[in-house]
Amino acid sequence: MRASNKVFHLAIPCKDLDETVAFYEKLGCELARRYHDRATFNFFGDQLVCHLSPESIDLQPKMYPRHFGITFMERQEFEHTLNYAYERNLPFFHEPAIRFAGKQEEHETFFLIDPANNLLEFKYYYNINMVY
Questions:
Q1: Residue 111 within any structural domain of the chain
Q2: How many distinct structural domains can be found in the chain?
Q3: Can you tell me the distance from the alpha carbon of 131 to that of 66, in angstroms, rounded to the nearest whole number?
Q4: Where is the VOC domain (predicted)?
Q5: Which residue in 11, 13, 39, 52 has the fewest CB atoms around it within 10 Å?
């Protein structure tokens, strides 16, 4: 398990810093700092750095295998985030769905897409033992 003195770090490409900052702030992520070539956010307690690199944008993104996101341990948090995304008119790549129905690893999921076509998955497992 991760100790509270550790923060996961993820770096992703972005095509426009203004669009990127607007999207992640609308999602509720706090902008930690911004430079001419990157923006760093508090992404649900972890560090997300969006590097300006328009040449690296995936023009035809697919959910699998490349995406990142949050697995909620409590259903209320998942539902709150889903409702928040709807209220803020955030762009969905894939509407809410159930994956692996009837199996131990059954979970709810939805995907958002940021301005640089990075895919963000938010999910909640009914069986908490299936998170890992």
A1: yes
A2: 1
A3: 18
A4: 6-125
A5: 11
Per-residue pLDDT of the chain (132 residues; tens, 9 = 90+): 567 788 999 999 999 999 999 999 999 999 999 999 999 999 999 999 999 999 999 999 999 989 999 999 999 999 999 999 999 999 999 999 999 999 999 999 999 999 999 999 999 999 999 998
Q: Which residues contact 45 (CB under 8 A, 6 or more apart)?
A: 7
* Token pair for 132: 């890992």
Q: CB neighbours of 112 closer than 8 A, spacing ≥ 6?
A: 27, 85, 90, 91, 92, 93, 119, 120, 122
Q: Can you tell me the distance from the alpha carbon of 108 to that of 126, in angstroms, rounded to the nearest whole number? A: 8
For residue 110, CA distances in Å to 62, 81, 101 come to 13, 10, 15
Give CA–CA dist 21/40, Å, rounded: 9
CATH of the domain at 92: 3.10.180.10
Q: What is the side-by-side strand order in the sheet with 30-35?
A: 9-14, 46-52, 38-43, 30-35
* C-alpha closest to that of 124 among 107, 112, 110: 107
Residue 124, both tokens: 């909640």
